[in-house]
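Lab notebook, design round three. We kept the backbone fixed and only want residue identities now. Task for the bench partner: fill in a sequence for the structure below.
Input structure tokens:
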């Protein structure tokens, strides 16, 4: 088993154990990542999150769990207002067949989260690195970044540099994409 640090949960024989927000926060602390967590009613869409946002400043993300015909998977994290052209993204990635959204079952199996809770932090549940990480270049210019910490009744804010540190620590180096160039 890959050493993940003291925050890692140890699965029993043949069983996968998904991380929680608390184990994610322990990972942040072990990495020296500063974060601020906000609790709120559960939200499932960008529109719902906008209505409950209140005074949370910074960039807010949308997260797409994508797959192609060959069942290759990607997690795309972008500025919530970013337009994503899936046809151009398909060409950029060299995806086979159409690029579509993964099912709830695929999402749970690969990233250990449910629809509405998709987040760049869910790569903590992908030690096999079966999911490629795609990151919107624009996010790196806004501090803080806001995303769910593996559940959709919380929003955590971290700096762009700390997001990159976190992704590197999980061996999910992102492909940083300028989506304006893909439209």
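Proposed sequence:
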């Amino acid at each position: 088993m890959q050493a993940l640090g003291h925050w890692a949960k140890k699965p029993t024989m043949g069983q996968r154990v998904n991380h929680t927000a608390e184990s994610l926060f322990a990972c942040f602390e072990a990495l020296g990542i500063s974060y601020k967590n906000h609790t709120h009613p559960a939200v499932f869409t960008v529109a719902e999150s906008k209505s409950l946002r209140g005074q949370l400043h910074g960039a807010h993300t949308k997260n797409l769990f994508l797959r192609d015909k060959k069942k290759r998977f990607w997690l795309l994290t972008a500025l919530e207002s970013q337009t994503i052209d899936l046809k151009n993204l398909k060409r950029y990635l060299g995806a086979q067949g159409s690029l579509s959204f993964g099912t709830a079952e695929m999402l749970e199996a690969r990233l250990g989260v449910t629809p509405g809770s998709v987040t760049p932090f869910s790569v903590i549940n992908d030690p096999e690195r079966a999911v490629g990480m795609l990151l919107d270049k624009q996010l790196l210019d806004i501090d803080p970044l806001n995303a769910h910490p593996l559940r959709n009744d919380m929003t955590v804010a971290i700096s762009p540099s700390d997001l990159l540190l976190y992704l590197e620590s999980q061996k999910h180096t992102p492909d940083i994409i300028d989506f304006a160039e893909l439209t």
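Keep this in mind before ordering anything: The domain at 27-182 is CATH 3.90.960.10 (YbaK protein).
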